């Protein structure tokens, strides 16, 4: 089967998965449950108290799954519960660690079978502000859909729960705490424990992980002139200069050009090729990581990935969609060169001349002092309080996390 046929087959498989998702989320056993478990679709401004500063807009959320304190509490327990994996060894938190701004520190993540995912674990911080999710899937728009991928996905296997819907319910139902938490979170569904309510609670918790208190936030949005060092202030000027071009893909509230919130309800979505690879001299990326071209089948989409938020970027190494760049200093090298050159091996190629590369990655030069200033600015985006906030921490006693 040719590359086009493979892309179309993957698109068909994804369409089938989305259909299955909608079916799962619309299952109801009574009139009350029909209201509680209606399909995820329309987005509305959230009314949940995220603890946002006055300058920050509220995120949007599905009208069918409003964020509530009870759902967030339940979702936090589920997020850290290893019962949501085939063999009880992993949880959502295994690939999204709070101390790493909800990434995992690996180039790519591993599932319960030891199989690796093709991509780096994205941060969940401020995920509520993204209208599309993951690195390269323009079709995944809601956390309620995305949660089913690690739970049920088989290419690759992550948590490994495909075909185990009834077992999931049984595992959770024997926990007395869950009977209380599900009843509080989903009173309109009579506290039903199901895959649908599990993913809705997980999604509510993930939306609650909001970071708006970095030193840069205090300096730029709250007028605290002492929040940044002189070096970081100089680095900010470099970052937003036309000379470096960084801000074209990393801008606004979330320092990313894909965004959705109450002041921008239409949303903005963008994917970019930064010249990370050029395997054949004609723009090719590794076969298992071709960006949105895997979904669209369009040659010009080769190597196009979503620009991640740069919030907390100093603690989320390694970088890029495949974790192939280990440090911020090396990331700067990549962009300064206008694309990465790999001299030998299966991925050899000159990314700088990739024909699909974004015009916003032309390359630049920096002095050592300017490089230090730029890194100081990127470090100022770390919200230290978030990394230790008990609202997002593991709620289970240590003896229960290994179940």
Automatic annotation (TrEMBL):
Cytochrome c domain segment(s): 230-382
A GO molecular function held by the record: cytochrome-c peroxidase activity
Keyword Amino-acid biosynthesis: no
PROSITE patterns, alphabetized: CYTC (PS51007)
Modifications after synthesis and translation: Binds 2 heme groups per subunit.
UniProt cofactor(s): heme
Entry keywords, A to Z: Heme, Iron, Metal-binding, Oxidoreductase, Periplasm, Signal
Recorded coiled-coil stretches: none
Positions of heme c 1 binding: 92, 95-96
Keyword Glycosyltransferase belongs to the record: no
Residues spanning the signal sequence: 1-30
GO CC terms of this entry: periplasmic space
Subcellular location: Periplasm
Transmembrane segments: none
Binding, heme c 2: 246, 249-250
Family annotation (InterPro entries): Cyt_c-like_dom, Cyt_c-like_dom_sf, Cytochrome_c_Peroxidase/MauG, Di-haem_cyt_c_peroxidsae, MauG/Cytc_peroxidase, MbnH-like
Organism domain of life: Bacteria
Co-factor note (free text): Binds 2 heme groups.
Name of the featured protein: Di-heme enzyme
Species this chain originates from: Sphingomonas pokkalii
